[in-house]
Amino acid sequence: xxxxxxxxxxxxxxxxxxxxxxxxxxxxxxxxxxxxxxxxxxxxxxxxxxxxxxxxxxxxxxxxxxxxxxxxxxxxxxxxxxxxxxxxxxxxxxxxxxxxxxxxxxxxxxxxxxxxxxxxxxxxxxxxxxxxxxxxxxxxxxxxxxxxxxxxxxxxxxxxxxxxxxxxxxxxxxxxxxxxxxxxxxxxxxxxxxxxxxxxxxxxxxxxxxxxxxxxxxxxxxxxxxxxxxxxxxxxxxxxxxxxxxxxxxxxxxxxxxxxxxxxxxxx
Length: 268
Known about the structure:
Blueprint: E1 3-7, H1 18-27, E2 35-41, H2 47-60, E3 63-68, E4 71-72, H3 75-80, E5 85-88, E6 93-94, E7 100-103, E8 108-111, H4 113-141, H5 145-164, H6 169-190, H7 196-208, H8 219-223, E9 238-240, H9 243-256, E10 261-263
Helix pairs in contact: 1-2, 2-6, 4-5, 6-7
């Protein structure tokens, strides 16, 4: 099949940004209606641009396959999962889809999950504190639950209040929306090739199921992202590169680490 490329090395020329989107937009009508492969080497970029580019291929090709010789992280993963199949190198990796937002005060990027999950963790800590305090007072005082409970709630409330008050509600809402956007983009791209429920489960796992933005999702992990009550894998349709393809990847990787390439190669 014809191979297109999105190879970016994370600098200003290699980001998956509006410039990359505009570049693909100019040549989108050359995307063949038959099978086509998109080779991806990307540390990420803007999820909206990744979504646009993925849609260009999904709308035009009857069989859109993505190829990951080495890595497709963050927005690169969003683009990779748009394919009906992902061909991965034996040491290749995808990554979580938790959105990275710039923190002007700290002068660095950070995951939106840091804020959103902080409330979830405080809630879990509060419930644990209620259980532990109830058990302790029930043993120490031998009083009934009805008489102990108001004191327990008051104690836990005073314990958690200073922590919860540090959460900026406006910032929390902004980051919640950013994560929801990434999840919705992923679900919409996945629904082109997967059942609706499965697509939504995979999208949710990719956004909220990993502890760190740099977490390595290798081919085996990608194939078994979720497990339902019947212990059946509900992951991505991943195919390991053949021995011959792996040799080609091995020859390509030194160039992938140096070049920024968007589109197709033409021989003159």
